[in-house]
Amino acid sequence: MGERFKGFKRWIFVGSVLFLAVFLSAAFYWRYDILRTTLDPKVPFQTYEPPPAPDYAKPAAWVLRSQAATAGPADVFFVHPTTYDGGRDWNAPYDQPKAARYLNRVMLPNYAAPFARVGRIFAPHYRQASLYTFLTLRDDARDARRFAYD
After folding, report:
1. What pTM does this model have?
2. Mean pLDDT of the chain, nearest integer
3. Confidence band for 15, pLDDT divided at 50, 70 and 90
4. How far apart (Å, rounded) are the C-alpha atoms in residues 92 and 148?
5. Which of 59, 79, 88, 144 has the fewest beta carbons under 10 Å from its own?
6. Can you tell me the distance from the alpha carbon of 67 to that of 92, in angstroms, rounded to the nearest whole number?
7. How far apart are CA 33 and CA 26, in angstroms?
8. Long-range CB contacts (within 8 A, 24+) of 15-24
9. What is the pLDDT of residue 28?
10. Residues 135/85, Cβ–Cβ less than 8 Å
11. 110 touches 63 (CB < 8 A)
12. Cα 5 to Cα 1, 27, 31, distances in angstroms
């Protein structure tokens, strides 16, 4: 009786390992489809209520607004790359504290700082299009990307 049960356990183990291997292989093969599906806002852009536009007359609408009196040969207007992964929204609200911390910690030192030798740097907050808009060819995505810079 024990020998027969031992073989059964071995088959259960082998079957479980094979099932796990097939499952992980399928997840790896369709990883971009899975990512696209999880990032899709699932609401048409036409019915989506977008975040309000930043008021660039106020200092809070700027990630970086140089106050230096001395200027280099040129002023630099820097629009940082999209950092908003999305999920529920097509466009990011410009006043998120978590996004501002990431911009100050990663984006500005690595992407904007090299331009400091040229002159004063101005970097606005804007309603970034979500990462999903760059992974699909839907008209909604094109509208969201266009809206980000309005």
Report:
1. 0.71
2. 87
3. very high
4. 9
5. 59
6. 27
7. 11
8. none
9. 96
10. no
11. no
12. 6, 33, 38
Distance, in Å, from the CA atom of 125 to the CA atom of 3, rounded to the nearest integer, reads 69
What are the DSSP E strand ranges found in 2-139?
62-65, 76-77, 121-124
Q: Look-up: residue for tokens 């607004």?
A: 65
> What is the CB neighbour count within 10 angstroms for residue 88?
11
Q: Which residues of 44-82 are buried (b: 16+ CB within 10 A; e: fewer)?
A: ebeebebbeebeeeeeebebbeeeeeeeeeeebebebeb
pLDDT one-digit tens code per residue, 122-138: 999 889 998 889 888 88
